[in-house]
Amino acid sequence: MNSAIPVQPTVPDSESRANTGILLAIAIALAILHLFTNGRYGFHRDELQFLSDARHLDWGFVAYPPVTPFLERILLTVFGVSPVGLRLFSVLAQSTAVFITGAMCRELGGGRLAQVVAALSVAFSPLPLFEGTEFQYSSFDYLWWVLATYLIIRLLKTDNPRWWLHIGVTLGIGLLTKYTILFFIAGILGGLLLTRSRRYFLSGWFWIGVAAALLIFLPNFLWQFQHNFISYQFLQHIHARDVGEGRAEHFFSGQFLINVNLFAAPLWIAGLISFLRGHPDSSYRIFAWMYLIPLILFVANQGRGYYLAAAYPMLLAMGASVGEKWLASLRPAWRCTVAGLMLTGFIAVTLYVCVLILPFATDGPLAYFALSNNGDLREELGWDTMLNSIVSVRDSLPPQQQSSVGVLVGNYGEAGAIEILGPAYHLSPPISATNSAWLRGYPQPTPSTLIVVGLSQRFIENNLTSCYLATRIPYPRNQNNEESRDHPDIYVCGPPRQPWPEFWKNIQAFG
After folding, report:
1. Residue 294 and residue 308: Cα distance in Å, rounded?
2. Average pLDDT of span 179-189
């Protein structure tokens, strides 16, 4: 018996092309919006780490797999140090995810209205919108989740097991992007096991897809093996830090306030219920498990709320399809009332989200509101101020010290800023022991004088010689980010108390 998703009534080719054109227009409009606003400020500290690693390509990095630095290396080659250019792939990833969401809705029986609503609901949800403002591994991870879901829909609708090869390739690239896609893979496998789709375990194409995913992931696995699975140690450290700092709190509220536009919440809830209410052996039910299993795993492991964001497009796609049919069943007066209320609320929330997340201005009320409420945007400020201060300290040193000086930094944002932006200030590469920078070692010959940024006074006194406070970086009071709050001081020191090999062995840090 064929258990593929029932085929929906055929849509005329002209209407289908028109719907595709509308979805494409939405995706392009979103991309243009990002391109016009992505150059307002500087780089986020996380972006600077990716750019630093892009200069040292490898099959793995301490903090993440290799795809994001690889993509940024391409953009560095093409655009140089341009925020707009270097964020291009993130913009394309989010715009593509929006388009695919509309296409998923069509595959699930949604008409034009449903497809547009589903696409817009993703486009103007806080987390997906943010992912287009910066290049982060989560930007590309989001796309792979959405694309894999669409491919699974195609698999079930056509009952063609060859789709497993495409799914496997997508998940393999996902494993090279962000390790949390393992939770999504657990959802897929659990969904197969708990529905009639378990029959695919007997398909050769399923195992070909598994082999494709593992083969793509193999170089990174070998890198991890060679480095004693250092990323696992890193993830343990970061998770403990996040839990300790309360970053894993408010998980459930984040599902409504961060991952999805608040006024689209009825759609994803309706989508989840629709997937769950199917016959126990229905192919649709796999999508409910693809949401619920990662949800349970993230809750059990105290994951952060945004980790589940990429599971919502499939729920929104189904919810929009169901909602369209329900709306059509109402009397005209009720239909207009409900549609009007939902549209008004959605527009209001969308405007708030856009003003909060998109850097529309660098001064005035819009900038003040965004910078007051968006901590990630504040992390894009102050790098030029820091670099100018370092240059001033360096130039104030006697010539004999300037001839053998290095800049020792305490976090990856400072390291990335000096490595990527520093050449314009004639600064030498930074000395950093954070994440993958530690694996690259220290300069040879070793410097006899160190300008130190971002390390505590206690660390400096315990590990370095002849230190004094050289200056305090003149950050604006309203900057209020990690650098201005925690690392405003620049010290000048002599060499480490221990020989450099011993010093380096003992100061490895996870950011």
Report:
1. 7
2. 97
Beta strand extents in 285-330 (DSSP E only): none
Nearest-5° Cα angle at 472, 430 to 48: 35
Residue whose pair of structure tokens reads 């595959």 in the numeric block:
107
- How many percent of the chain have pLDDT more than 90? 92
* pLDDT over threshold 80, residue 459: yes
Q: If you count them, how many residues does the chain have?
A: 511
Average pLDDT of the chain, as a whole number: 94
Task: Tokens for 247, please give them.
Answer: 């970053």
Find tokens 């496997």 and name the residue.
Answer: 168
Distance CA 135, CA 314 (A): 23
Residue reference for tokens 């496998």? 189
**DSSP letter assigned to residue 418:** I
Q: What is the pTM of this model?
A: 0.94
Question: Which residue is listed with tokens 């971002």?
Answer: 454
Rounded to 5 degrees, φ, ψ at 50 are -60, -40
Distance of CA 282 to the CA centre of its chain: 33
Phi-psi region of 441 (alpha: psi -120 to 50; beta: other; left: phi over 0): left
Distance CA 264, CA 125 (A): 9
In one-letter notation, the amino acid at residue 511 is G
215 Cβ neighbours under 8 A, 6+ residues apart: 172
DSSP characters over 127-172:
HHHHHTTS--HHHHHHHHHHHHHHHHHHHHHHT-TTHHHHHHHHHH
Burial class of residue 420 (count of CB atoms within 10 Å of its CB; 0-12, 13-18, 19+): buried
Token pair 């200056």 is found at 471
**What are the C-alpha distances in Å from 418 to residues 17, 49, 142?**
49, 11, 30
Alpha-carbon distance of 96 to 439, in angstroms, equals 35
Structure tokens at 304: 């952060």
Task: Report DSSP state, residue 381.
Answer: S
280-317: pLDDT as tens digits: 447 889 999 999 999 999 999 999 999 999 999 999 99
What are the DSSP calls for 345-377, one per residue? HHHHHHHHHHHHHS---SSHHHHHHHHHH-HHH
Over residues 102-117, the mean pLDDT reads 96
Indicate the pairing of strand 405-409 with strand 449-453.
parallel
For 91, the 3-state DSSP assignment is helix
489 CA to centre of own chain: 31
| 3-27 average pLDDT score | 76
The model's pLDDT over 483-508, given as tens digits with 9 standing for 90+, comes to 999 999 999 999 999 999 999 998 88
| Range scoring the smallest mean pLDDT among 3-7, 45-49, 113-117 | 3-7
Distance CA 115, CA 8 (A): 15
pLDDT score for 8: 54
Q: What is the DSSP string of 213-225?
A: HHHHHHHHHHHHH
